[in-house]
Amino acid sequence: MRPLISAILLASASLAVAANTDKAFVRARHTQNARDVRARSPKQYTLVDHYSAQHFMNESHWSYFTSADPTGGQTKYLSHADASKAGLAYVQNGQAILAVDSKNDLPLGAERDSVRITSTKAYNGGLFIADFAAMAHGCAVWPAYWTVGEHWPNGGEIDIIESVNLHVMNQYTLHTGPGSDCVLVKNTPTTSASSSALYTGTVMDTECKSSEGSNAGCSFLDPRNTSFGHGFNMAGGGVFAHLWDDAGVKMWYFERQSVPQDIHNGQPDPSSWPTPVAFWSSLGCDFASHLHNHHLVINTALGGGWASSDYPNSGCPGTLSDQITKGKNFVYAKWMINYIAVYK
Ligand SMILES: *[C@@H]1O[C@H](CO)[C@@H](O)[C@H](O)[C@H]1NC(C)=O
Ligand SMILES: *[C@@H]1O[C@H](CO)[C@@H](O)[C@H](O)[C@H]1NC(C)=O
Prior knowledge:
Elements: H1 2-11, H2 15-40, E1 47-52, E2 62-64, E3 75-77, H3 80-85, E4 89-92, E5 95-99, E6 112-114, E7 116-123, E8 126-134, E9 141-148, E10 157-162, E11 171-175, H4 189-192, E12 202-205, E13 218-221, H5 229-234, E14 238-245, E15 248-255, H6 261-264, E16 278-281, E17 294-302, H7 305-310, H8 320-325, E18 334-343
Parallel strand pairs: 3-6
Antiparallel strand pairs: 1-18, 2-7, 4-5, 5-18, 7-17, 8-14, 8-18, 9-10, 9-17, 10-11, 11-13, 12-13, 14-15, 15-16
Helix pairs in contact: 1-2
Bound molecules: 2-acetamido-2-deoxy-beta-D-glucopyranose (NAG) (2 copies).
One 2-acetamido-2-deoxy-beta-D-glucopyranose is lined by residues 168, 225, 230-231, 234.
């Protein structure tokens, strides 16, 4: 194009006009290129924290919660010293193992030993990448990997991994405080089947606000049967990533064989990833202003709210209380964590 334009301009006999036009043309082209490069170049994420196996055993980084089970189950959360002594928190083959007692039988109604850990550091956004080789699961088991602010539910809650009993499809949930007016914005019929879909998961609830008697949160179900529990572990585990920024909160689950190379390289680029499985768009409320100072939490509860309401129709044997009495029922109630990395 340029030689042709130059030839025409040269032929016009006005060299001044030619020079100016040519410069303007070149300038415009450079500006255009600069814009294209900016639009295509990914946002750079820089590593803020990298929690590897031994960090989960270090109370400067992760504290061990020892209060009564807040979900009303039969869980006794142990201190780090006690969990370590009981063989429920340790490092093996470069993985942090967080387990439930599977050795002891207990009387009916007794609490079973487990662990719940909380990052000492709090976050106000970022890109979080969690690689699990396995997650705790089983009948009467309610495992979760989640983040939560202070003074629940006012600081909000983000549930990245959560379900109960024999489910193999993961549920992703956001909770905001009672004063908020937050909703999950759904795909429209035109976006849902196209590449402009906001998310690929199945919407379960659209009301995010948690209040007395109504705290289900707004949630998605992952349609993949490798996203939770036995299905996840049989597939060799995988990576859960979530991005919390001004656009809202997006989540991805990558099966082991489809973890993007940029994650392996430590230079994650969410703009190159497929459509997230869950997305709470800031069109549904300014989520950023309803989520504050979130600590990361990993825990395994036994029984309690959701596990017990689901139990009768779960395909699990007998009653939940009977299930909890037998140690051998909990051999798979064990998290195996490769790492959690946080980027900004
Ligand atoms: C625990 O973490 C702190 C802070 O990073 C570090 O100074 C300390 O050496 C760690 N402790 C152990 C036992 O690794
Ligand atoms: C998941 O679904 C596939 C295909 O329907 C099936 O073969 C497999 O057994 C299921 N896995 C689990 C853990 O349910």
